[in-house]
Amino acid sequence: MRNLSFLLVFILVLLACRKEPRPLPSEISRVEPEPTAVLRGMYLVNEGNMNMNKASLDYLDFRNGIYTRNFYNQINPEVTKGLGDVGNDIGIYGSKLYIVVNVSNKVEVLNVRTGKRIGQINITNGRYLAFAKGRAYVSAYLGRVGDPTAVNGIVAEVDTTTLSISRTVRVGRQPEEMAIVNNKLYVANSGGYSPPNYENTISVVDLDSFMETKRIEAAINLHRLKADKYGDLYVTSRGDYYDILSKLLVIDTKTEKIKKTFDFAASNLTIDDEVAYIYATSWNYLQGRNTINYFMIDVKEELLLKQQFITDGSDKHIRVPYGIAVNPYNKDIYITDARDYVTPGKLHCYNVEGHLKWSVTTGDIPAHLVFVK
Amino acid sequence: MGSSHIKKMVKKNFALLGVNFASCYFWLWLGIVALPCTCFAQKADSIQKINQLNEVQIQQYRLTKQNLSPVPLQILSAQELMRINSLSVADAIRYFSGVQLKDYGGIGGLKTVNVRSMGSNHTAVFYDGIVVGNAQNGQVDLGRYGLDNLEEISLWSGQNSNLLQPAKAYASASAIFLKTKVPDFDQQKRYFLNADVKLGDFGLISPSVNYQYRIKNKLWGSISTNYIHANGSYKFRLTNGVFDTTALRNNADVERFRIQAALFGETKYKAKWNIQGYSFWSNRGLPGAIVANKFDYSQRIWDQNFFVQGAYRQDFNRVQLLFNAKFTHDYTRFVDPEYVKIDGFLDNRFRESEVYFSVAVKYDVNTQWSWSLSSDDQYQYLNANLYRFAYPQRNTFLNVLGTAFKTDRLTLQGNLLSTTVVDRIQALENPNDKQIFSPTLMFSWKIFQQHNLSIRGFYKDIFRMPTFNDLYYTFIGNTLLRPEFTKQYDLGLTYSTFFNQGKLRFVELQGDVYYNTVKDKIIAQPGANLARWIMYNIGKVEVRGLEINAKTGIDLRKGLNIGFGINYTYQQAIDVTDRNEDSFADQIPYAPKHSGSFLAKVDYKHWKLNYSFIYTGYRYNQKANLIYNYMEPWYTHDMAMGYGFKLKESCVQLNFEINNLLNQYYDVIPNFPMPGRNYRLTLNYSL
C-alpha cells in the first residue's frame, strides 16, 4: 500500500524532531577584563516576563571579563523550573546571595561564590530585600492568602542561618523598597492595587520589637527607597499616572519629615558615597514615546548637579533604562536596558568620565544588580 | 477487531475516572454490556447504506464547493465531526491547514485560532451566518462551542465567496463559519431527536440533547441543550533531563450549560426565515502558568452569554434579499483572591451589549453576472467596574458593493468594503472617526472542460479595529491607535476527481501559496512607568506560506472503505519591524515553520476506526529566535473507534476516543501544559 508506506515515512521523519530534554545552557560573552579589579564580579537578575518563567541570573567576572548568561540553570539544573517567574530583587549578605522571585513566591538563597543553591524561603508575592544584624528582611504584597480583609502587606524577618521566617510585621498596602537606618526599617508603601486610593506613607518599623511604630507622610504611590550615609532617605513617588506627577523626595530620618522635593519623574536611583545617580523615564503622549533623562544629586547638600553621568551621547541607544549600579571602587556606572521587554536586554558600562566602555546582551528585562566582593 | 479490545481500553478509562462520578460507571457499564449483545442482533446493512449514501453525498457537496471556491475553503461536516477526536470547535479546527490554535490547555482553557499568522484578532467567527462579536478583546474562545449541534464547520481564507451575505462577512482576513443543524423541510418525519452523553478523563460528563419538531407544514421548531461538568484535573510532567516532576493541573474545573431554541419557517411567498435564542452559562477556574514553586491558582471566571438572532431571506426572480439581526449581551466576572484591594479581592465585571442589523441584496443581471450590496450596522457598548473606565461605545457601519461574473469554468469576483467606525467614550477625548475602504479581488478558472483542475487566487486588503482593551483599558490603552492592516495575496490549484468504478473513489488536492503582510501591528510596549505597558502601532510582519491538502477514499471490497487526508503548511512569518533590532527577520512568536496533520479512517460494516496525527513544528515563544525561547515540536496521535447499529427506528452509536496515544507532554503556550493520554466515550442516540 503506497499510502501506508508514505504515512510511515512521514511519521518517522516527524518523530525524529523532538530532542532529548536537557537543561538550558548558559552562554558566554567577553567584555574588557580588569585583572586588578577590587571587586570580583557582579550578579544581575533578569526579571523575565510574567507567566514565562524566564527569570534568569547572569554573572560578570570583572577580572577575567567573562559575562555568563543563564548562570543559575547551569549550576542548579535539578531545581524544577529553575529560578522561576519574575525576578524582583537581589542582595548579598555574608556568604549568601538572595533573589526574590515574585510570582514564584520565593526567595532563592545561593552560595555567593559558586552560585550553588542553599535553599529557599517561601513568601507570597515578595518584592524587595534589606539586611541587618544577621537577618534578611523581605517586603511582600500579600499578608495572608485567601483573606479578602488582609489588604496590608508585610515585611518578613528571615534568620540568615536557618533560612526560616522568624517574625512578620504588617505595614502599608503593597510595600516596595526598604532601607535600614539606626536600627529602624523604613518601608515605601505604594497601595498600587487600589487606585486612586494609593498609600502616601513610609512605614517605620523598630527592628528590636519588630513593630510598626510610625507612618511618615510622604507622597502617593511610593516605590524606590534608598538611604544615604547622612541618614537621609531618597524616595520616589510614582504619582497617579494622570494628574499627580512623579517626583523624588528626600526624608530626614532624624526628624522623619520631608526635607526636599525634586520635581522630576525619577524611575530608579542608586547612591554611591556622595552622589545619587538617577534615571527618569516619562511618557510623552504627543510623540508616542518615552523621554529619558539622567540626573546626579549631591546627597550631602541635596543639590542637583549640572554634570551628566553619560557624556558621549551613547545614551540615545538606551530604550528603557531598567536597572542601575555604581562600582564603589572605580566608579564605573552600569545601566541595563529592557528594550521592548520581550527581547533580550542590554547591560552598558560607563566609566567615570561618562564614556561607554562596553555593552553586552543580557536575559529578558535585566533589572537588579549586586556586586560581589 | 474484537470487543475485548474495547473492553480493555474502557476498563483503563473506568479506573481513571475516579470515584466521584458514580453515574459514569453506570453508563460505562451499559456501554460494555450492551456492545457484544446488540452487535449481532441488528440488521447490518440498512444503516450502513444510509451512512454510505450520506458520506458520498457529503463528499461530493464538499468537493464541489471547495473546488469551485476562488478562496481556499476547508470544511468539516457533522459526520466527520462525530468521528474525529474533538470535544469542541477548537479541537476540530486543528485539522485544517494554515491554522495555529492557541490553546491554554484543558477543557476550560482559552482556545483561539490564528490563521496564516496574521494574529487571532483577524479571524472572524460566524454563528449561523451572523458574526460573533467581542469588542472588548476581539477574541472568540472556540473551546466554548461544542460539536453536538453543529452541521458544519468551514474555514475560509480571505472571505466567504458567497455574494449574498452580511457586510461583516467581508470584513475580516479569514472567517470560520459554524452552521448549526437545520431541519430539512422535505423530510416526511415529524421530529428528530439526537441525544448523546460524553464521559471521559478530567471527570468529564457532558450530556446533550437536540430535538427538532415539525409544528406544522413549513414550520419547524428546535431545541438544543448541552451541559458540561469536568474537574479538569490532569497529570502533566515537567523535565529538563535532570529534574523530573509530575503534578496535577489544579483550578481547571469547568461547568457549562447551553440552551438554545429556534424556529424555522417558510412563508407562502417562499421566503425562508429563522429566529433563535441562545443562552450560555459558565463557571470555571482559571488555571495559571506552571512556574517554579507555583503550580496552584485560585482565580475564577464566570461567563454569561445571551443572544437572539434571526434571518429572513426572500428570493425573487432576479433579486434575492437577506435580512439579519442580532442582540447580544455578555457578562464576565473575574475574581482574583491573590490580589487584595481595600474593598476585598479583585473582582472585575464586564458587561458588553451589541445590537446588529444587516441587509443584503443580490441582483442577477443575467445568468452569469450578478451584483450585490450589503449594509450592516453594529452598535457595541462595554461597561466595567474598572477605575477610570472609559465606557466605550462603538458604531460600525459597513457597506459593501460586490460583483461576480461566473461561467461554468470562470469566476471573477470583486468587492469594495467601506467601513466607518465611530467611537464615543467618557472621561477621555473621543478618538477620531475612521473611514476606510477595503478592496478584494478573486478569481477561479477551471482549466480543462473535462477535468476538475482549477487555478484560483485572491487579493484582499483588510484591517482589524483596535479593541476596546487596546484603546481604553485603564493605564494601558492608547486612544491614538490606528487599525492594524493586512494584505493577502494567494494563488492556488485545486483538483478533484470521482470514480464510479474501481477501488479508488475520489482524489482531491488543494495547494496554495500565499504572501501576507501585517502593518501597524498593535503591540504592547513599556510606557512611562516601569509597571505600565502601552499599546502601540509598531509591528510589521511578512508571511510567506504554502498549504497543501490531499484527500482520498478507497473501497477495498464490499463493506470495507478507507480514507486518507493529509494537510501540510509551511510558513515563514518574519518580524520586519525594525532593521536595527537583533530580532529583525526572526520568525514571529508561536508561528511554526512546519505543521500538518494526517487523518486515516476505516469503515467496516458497523465499525468505524479513525486515526489522526497532528504535528506542530518548533517555534519560538518570544521575538528573539534564541534557545531560551525555543519550543519543542509537538505531535499527538489520536485514535477513535465507533460502533453504530439500528434499534428499531432509532440509531445508536458508540464512539471511544484515545487522545494523545503516546502520552506526549507538551505546551502550546509555554507553562500551560497540555493533557497527556486521555480517554473519552460518547454514546449517541438518534431518532
How is this structure best described in words?
The complex is a heterodimer of chains A (373) and B (687). Chain A is built from two helices and 29 strands. By secondary structure, chain A is mainly β. In chain A, the strands form seven sheets. In chain A, strands 1-4-3-2-29 form a five-stranded antiparallel sheet. A four-stranded antiparallel sheet of chain A has the order 5-6-7-8, with no helix packed on it. In chain A, strands 9-10-11-12 form a four-stranded antiparallel sheet, with no helix packed on it. In chain A, strand 13 and strand 14 form a beta hairpin. Chain A is globular and about 55 Å long. Chain B is globular, with a radius of gyration of 25 Å. Chain B starts with a helix and ends with a strand. The longest helix of chain B has 24 residues, at 45-68. The relative contact order of chain B is 0.13. In chain B, the strands form five sheets. Chain B has a 22-stranded antiparallel β-barrel. In chain B, helix 1 (3-16) runs antiparallel to helix 2 (22-39). Chain B has six helices and 33 strands. Chain B is mostly beta strands. The interface between A and B is large, with 81 and 66 residues.
Brief rundown of the structure:
The complex is a heterodimer of chains A (373) and B (687). Chain A has 373 residues and is mainly beta.
Weakly predicted, low-confidence segments of chain A: none
Strand proportion of chain B, as a percent range, falls in: over 45%
Q: Which geometry of chain A do the CA atoms define?
A: globular
Mean pLDDT of chain A: 93
Share in helix of chain B: 10-25%
Low-pLDDT segments, ≥5 res of chain B: 1-51
CATH superfamily of the domain at 123-269 in chain A: YVTN repeat-like/Quinoprotein amine dehydrogenase
Q: Which two chains have the most extensive interface, and how many residues on each?
A: A-B, 81 and 66 residues
**Based on DSSP secondary structure assignment, what is the total number of beta strands of chain A?**
29
Share in β-strands of chain A? over 45%
What would you say the CATH architecture of the domain at 123-269 in chain A is? 7 Propeller
Note the gap between the termini of chain B.
27 Å
Radius of gyration of chain A: 22 Å
